[in-house]
Amino acid sequence: MTEAAPLKLKKHQDRRLRAGHCWVYSNEIDTAATPLKGLDPGQAVDIVSDQGKWIGSGYANPNTLIAARIVSRDRAHRLDQSLLVHRLKIALGLREALYPAPYYRLVYGEADGLPGLIVDRFDDQLVVQLTTAGMEAVREKVVAALDKVLNPTVILLRNDIASRTTEGLEQVIKEAKGTVPERTQVMEGGGRFQVSLLEGQKTGWFYDQAANRDRLMKYVAGKRVLDVCSYVGAWGVRAALGGAAEVTCVDVSAKALDQVEENAALNGVADRVRIAQGDAFATLKALRQAGEHFDVIVVDPPAFIKRKKDMKEGNLAYRRLNEVAMALLGRDGLLASASCSFHMDRDTLLRTLQQGARHVDRSLQLLEYGQQGPDHPVHPAIVETAYLKAYYLRVLPTF
Description:
Helix 2 crosses helix 4, helix 9 packs parallel to helix 10 and helix 10 crosses helix 11. Strand 3 and strand 4 form a beta hairpin. The radius of gyration is 23 Å and the shape is globular. By secondary structure, it is an alpha/beta fold. The strands form 4 sheets. Strands 15-14-13-16-17-19-18 form a 7-stranded mixed beta sheet, sandwiched between helices. It has a 5-stranded mixed beta sheet with strand order 1-3-4-5-2. Strands 6-7-8-9-10 form a 5-stranded mixed beta sheet. It has 3 domains: 68 residues, PUA domain (Archaeosine Trna-guanine Transglycosylase, Chain: A, domain 4, Roll); 97 residues, Transcription Regulator spoIIAA (2-Layer Sandwich), CATH 3.30.750; 214 residues, Rossmann fold (3-Layer(aba) Sandwich).
């Protein structure tokens, strides 16, 4: 990184940072004293209060709403390879204490003290996302630190996410170490799954839902299960492994459903797993028209609300999808409904589900609530690190 430049805050704009948050918004900076113009994206900066008191060091991007991120609150340690190694070891210690096998999110950005960095571990293969210009500026140091701490056979940079465009970065997929195989194995809940690290969604697997999939298992034995937005079958195939009598996986992607079939066969449950390709709304409506009913339905769609301005339309999408799902349940069914939209908080999601239930003349009993797994730790001062909600609801006729 280039030499650190000072960024002075306006009066009273240091309170949130002193409480533990690490984001500095452009309108919080005293640009008359320390202009953002002229800074390079990713440039090292020192954040100081309006009174000149040092708060922390990090990096800036003058072209984005989040104009800077604090990485260190210790003057002796800036964002370099030594700090990266230290933070990686701390992150690794948590995961090794909690997970019996090396399949988890190793680094979860701000919550692990490394804003702009995501690392998912698939045994000796790592998938890395550098989501900010500041972390991109130390890309080689990130790779070297990962190599030093874990010595993996593969380090894949999956830098093909939309947030990089906002940061002024190109979207690119690149092998930083080793050669990525066509298929990589994931171990979860006693099952084995084959995924594509190069072509799969996000990093290839959704580790954040692992604990919620564990929670589902006690509800599925002997049941007829529908997995909506199934991707490669994490929920559905695991339900079959958990004793479900029959599982139907619905997804719009034919490639993903091909992998559902592969994973069902790999786990010896192909005879109880079937697929249905198509848009989730249309497919569920077709199943209803065909008179189908299920005992357990999992609704785990992609984020319908990516920005605040999507709230109204997104809420309606969640409600409608869950309404159709509830209409497909038998008289005493279970709905496992999740949302990964940060802007939809847990109370709003539950209220939306209740509204959907009333619309199809059903009653709900909330049995359990889940969130992202502990490999996606929540930073108490950074609400943005908490995004995943999962409700387990008994769906009954109106009473």
